[in-house]
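I have been asked to look over a protein record a colleague put together. Alongside the sequence sits a line of tokens, each denoting a local backbone shape. Please read both lines and tell me whether the tokens look consistent with the sequence. Take the sequence as given and treat only the tokens as open to question. I have pasted the whole thing underneath without changing anything:
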Amino acid sequence: MNKLAVILPIYKRPELTDLCLKNLSYQRDKYGIDVFVVGSEGEISKALVEKYGFNYLEFENNPLSAKFDAALKETQKGNYDGVIVLGSDNFISDSIIEFYQKVDTSI
């Protein structure tokens, strides 16, 4: 079974972000995925993420690609077989995680 990480940059929209984090919390508990959230609103972002026990990074929001880069560097430390990149308003189904946990990564 492949070891997966999810990268999630967040900025504002705390209610919608909370729903996304809640869904990922369920999937983390069910599938053992690791979640790396990159925020840029200081304690506001950090408190929201820590509520679910996810890995939190603080990084400025401009450009957005810098947030992705910061999170990707963190995932390199974990020897993951795959990384799923989401937005704070994205939700993924269990079947997506199940699929990527079984994909042949030896190719």
About this structure: The CA atoms of residues 42 and 58 lie 7 Å apart. The chain is about 45% helix and 20% strand.
